[in-house]
Amino acid sequence: MALNPWLAISIFALVILLFTIPLLSLPYLIVFPRRKENPFRDMPFESGQVPQGDARHRLAMQYYPFVLMFVVFDVVGMFLFAWGISFSQIPLDSSLVVLIFLVLLGAPLAYALRLALRRENW
Amino acid sequence: MVTLVSYIIVSAALLGIGIYGISVKRNAIRILFAVEIIVNAANINFAAFTRYLNPPTVSGQVIVFYSIAASAMEAAIGLALILVAFRLNGSIDVRKMDKLKG
Amino acid sequence: MVNIPTSPADLLPFIISIVTSHTFITIIIFPGMIHLTLVSAFLTWYERKLLARIQLRIGPLYAGGPGGILQPIADGVKLIFKEVILPYKADRTLFTWIPLVLIYLGTLPFAVIPFGQHWVIANLDVGLVFIFATTSVFPSMIIIFAWASNSKYPFIGGLRSLFQQVAYEIPMWISALSVVILAGSLNLVDIVNKQAKIWFIVPAFLSFIVFFICIMAELERLPFDLPEAEPELVAGWFTEASGAIFMAIFLALYLKLYMMSALVTDLFLGGWWGPPFLPQPVWTVLKALVVATAIIIPRGIYPRIRVDMLIRIGWTRLLVIALANVFITVVLVNSGLLARWGL
Amino acid sequence: MVEVALTIPPDVVFIAFATVTLLAAILALQAKELIYGAIALGASFAGIAGMFILLDAPYLAMLQIAIYVGAVVVLILFTIMLVRREEGEEVTEQRERGEGAAGLWIAGLLAVAIAGVAALAGPNLPSTPPGNALPVSQLGPALVTQYPVPLLILAFLLSAALLGAMMLAKVER
Considering the domain boundaries, does residue C44 fall inside one? Predict the structure, then answer.
């Protein structure tokens, strides 16, 4: 007997909730009501140093181009998957479009990488 | 009973929320949120209309495909612009982006 | 169809019919929760024992059973009753509930991973994309958790984790694409059924290598464990996690390890296919454990690589190799070389 | 015994997804901290993905989650963390009097107008979808045989966006 797969997934999701909610409610039920303020215990862990300044400081720019490239290639990946499922049903000359698509994206990717890997840009 | 009209109503409500965000908010990132919400409202309509077409077709789904890709790129460019504006003005408040004002 | 009982006499048959139904067994017992809890607990013990053996130590020993195999239970009891320390100015809501989301993201993909012809929770047509969609939510949750704990080590670790997972996700997908082209389906049951005659590791060997390297990076395993480099960052993005929260994150990470191993098994190593003296699910679990061993062993052997090398490998080498694999696969499929295996 | 078919009741699920989508969209615009706003935006997109599943477009749903929740939200979080002030202050939303009410009025009017027109046209619109939905494998052929030109234009769009955003964000020297 086959259930609708999405229904099965939602039942599974509910079951996970039943298993994990008790685990993570414990801090709310046991720990947090009895907390006493203790500035030394709640200090962020920095190997014994006294923390200086805010931890959420402005982060380094050098990771930004890679996140950008990820967004672009996420889209490309999803398009390629849609083409890949039905590769055998598509005539080969139609698949040429995908080849052109990838070639068109190749040069920008190379240039973007060149920009991204130069440390003085960020 | 879920009909085509229910999807259109949800989409119209999302459009309303998005337009409210664009017209009232001052934070550039929130305006970007609002634009994304509006694009998604349109996507719901495309997917709903193509599902209710007879004979069935996937054209609407393909349009949503391109629309999602385009709006992801729009977010990338928009956020880069916000970064530049922050670097120039020290703020992402759109009312303060008035360098051209005499 | 479900028979709702109307009289007390019907209650017992009703419960029996529910408990013996395919849905209940798959969700609660076999590919579902009990199996997952047991295997992920086993993996925590197994990793410690294996690393100890590699480094000529003994490892867990005293917790009972052969070789201290009950160690995970002792650990779990200890961690549940430990105090949860909330760092100064941390965001309490996000700090306590993001681990739940992480467990969710680690467990939900098992809904579509088949362990046997019928041992699958949901026979979903877009199964593979479902897995990729759920795993792609990991990086944002990690960076939010790191931000919420308001401490410097977690924040740096979270950033590293983010850009590492982001860099290796794309080559991973694209190397899986050649499997999709070979099988002509995104349904994992169909993909494994196509491997009855030949495992996809043979026609798509390079893809397998790329995929394996990418999941090592996705799982933050050595030599790619920069996000939790102990000498530099204490414990990376979960430095501030303690007690039940630490346990939840730990569980989520081991679930993800097992999930990726099972995924490799189903995509490349023929899933449940094997000599018929063992039942199908046993083959899948055994192969997945072998893959997990292969993922764990480098932790005892190799040093970690540098950040810039990590980026270079991911975005230049692996992406190009993965794209080249797609073309190799297209040529292979079209040349008819694989026709004798029905591909 | 009463036999009941175990299926998804579409009305309940639709209402649940619609509520999640709309409430999360409102929260995305109104949450005090931008980080919470970004998370709420992700939840809203996930709700829309649920609606795509109800509309028998599971591939679109997965695309929505992978691209929006997986990639765009990461980019937004990253930008939020980059534009924080040094002293840790978020940009405040100060608003002149009457502005919020006016925006709400216009947006509400527009939404009600569209919904009203749709409801008036309701009897003429099809109320039930045609029997079988098309399988996922129909999407690929439509993409490369019916719409190849948009695909190539998309390649230009992607490269322009990638290089443009990178050139904008890089430090001028």
Answer: no
Q: Is residue D2 classed exposed, middle or buried when 0-12, 13-18 and 19+ CB atoms within 10 A define those classes?
A: exposed
**D1-86: which CATH architecture?**
Up-down Bundle (1.20)
> What are residue C58's phi and psi, to 5 degrees?
-100, -35
- Among residues C129, C131, C101, C125, the alpha carbon closest in space to that of C113 is found at C131
Instruction: From chain D, pick out residues whose CB is under 8 angstroms from the CB of B18.
Output: 25, 107
CB D67 within 8 A of CB B36: no
The three-state DSSP-derived secondary structure of chain A is: CCCCHHHHHHHHHHHHHHHHHHHHHHHHHHHHHHCCCCCCCCCCCCCCCCCCCCCCCCCCHHHHHHHHHHHHHHHHHHHHHHHHHCHHHCCHHHHHHHHHHHHHHHHHHHHHHHHHHCHHHC
Q: Which residue ranges of chain A lie beneath pLDDT 70? A: 1-2, 27, 31-32, 35, 39-60, 122
Contacts of A71 in chain B (CB under 8 A): 72-73, 75-76
Give pLDDT tens digits for D130-146: 777 778 888 888 888 88
Q: Return the minimum-mean-pLDDT range out of B71-85, C101-115, C124-138, C143-157.
A: C143-157
Cβ <8 Å between D169 and A58: no
Using CB atoms, pick whichever of C22, C129, C155 lies closest to residue A56: C155
Q: CB distance B69–A75 less than 8 Å? A: yes
Query: b vs e for B68-91, b when ≥16 Cβ sit within 10 Å of the residue's Cβ?
Result: bbbbbbbbbbbbbbbbebbeeeeb
Among the listed residues A55, A53, A57, A59, the one whose alpha carbon sits nearest the alpha carbon of residue A122 = A59
Angle made by CA atoms D138, D11, D70, in degrees to the nearest 5 = 55
ipTM of the complex: 0.88
Chains with 3 or more CB pairs under 8 A to chain D: A, B, C
Q: Which residue of D has its CA nearest to C98?
A: D39
CB contact under 8 Å between C140 and D74, yes or no, is yes
| Placement of tokens 């993996």 in the chain | C43
Domain count across chain C: 1
Phi, psi (rounded to 5 degrees) for A32:
-65, -40
Assigned token pair, C59: 């490892």
For residue C73, being part of any structural domain is answered with: no
Domain positions in chain B: 4-96
| Domain at B4-96: CATH code | 1.10.287.3510
Q: Is C64 contained in some domain?
A: no
Q: Give the position of tokens 């991911």.
A: C314
Q: Percent of chain A having pLDDT more than 70?
A: 75
Mind listing the pLDDT tens digit for each residue in D39-63?
999 999 999 999 998 888 889 899 9
Could you tell me if residue C35 is inside a domain?
no
Residue of B nearest to D167 (CA): B80
